[in-house]
Amino acid sequence: MTRIIVVDDHPVVAEGWSRVTRHLSDCEIVYTATPLRAFQVSREKPPDLLVVDLSFGDERLAGIKYISRLRLHDRRVPVLVFSMHRSAVLVREAFRAGANGFVNKDASPEDISTAFTTVLAGGRYLAPDMATRLAFLDLSTPGEPAPAALTAREVEVLSLIATGKSYREIAQISCVSYKTVLNIGHALRTKLSANSLPDLVVKAVEFFEPR
């Protein structure tokens, strides 16, 4: 039996994957609402495929963190990210964390099915339009912000800024010094052309808004 674990905080998503996998005669869909629960369920019985969202509530990068931790002890199981996010930077970070494929939740049923079957078979998947955006990620227009230059740590701090966390709170959560977060904040303001901290907060929220 093909065992699929869907890690998403929206139950309707699991129902959708049941329709996507109906062509498989022997398939089991297991729904988990949190990455922590996914770890527990995976240990009980390893899946043949993990379908993972990126954001869980205010945890904008919870899915990417989950994939990174998963890859520390399991390099085998295929991981397909299923998200509303369209940021090429987040797609890049998902693949760097260890994802095998990425498909948007608003993609056509045919594209979602293709992503599913490709990753389940051991391949890699990225829609052509997103692949193009990823390929041109490092080519910035003069005078425009260059989000491609963001490091993984900067993306993490930006995600926490987007939730309204102060620099001191971010330092505690990330287990780094306040000075380190302050320096990262200055770097983010430069890279995202933010004129002030409030402006950076606005840009952070916009960065993580599905688009």
UniProtKB/TrEMBL annotation:
The keyword DNA-binding applies. Gene3D superfamilies: 3.40.50.2300, Winged helix-like DNA-binding domain superfamily/Winged helix DNA-binding domain. Pfam families: GerE, Response_reg. It comes from the Bacteria. The keyword DNA-binding applies. GO terms for molecular function: DNA binding. Residues 143-208 form the HTH luxR-type domain. InterPro entries: CheY-like_superfamily (IPR011006), NreC/VraR/RcsB-like_REC (IPR058245), Sig_transdc_resp-reg_C-effctor (IPR016032), Sig_transdc_resp-reg_receiver (IPR001789), Tscrpt_reg_LuxR_C (IPR000792), WalR-like (IPR039420), WH-like_DNA-bd_sf (IPR036388). This is Two-component system uhpT operon response regulator UhpA. Residues 3-120 form the Response regulatory domain. Keywords: DNA-binding, Phosphoprotein.
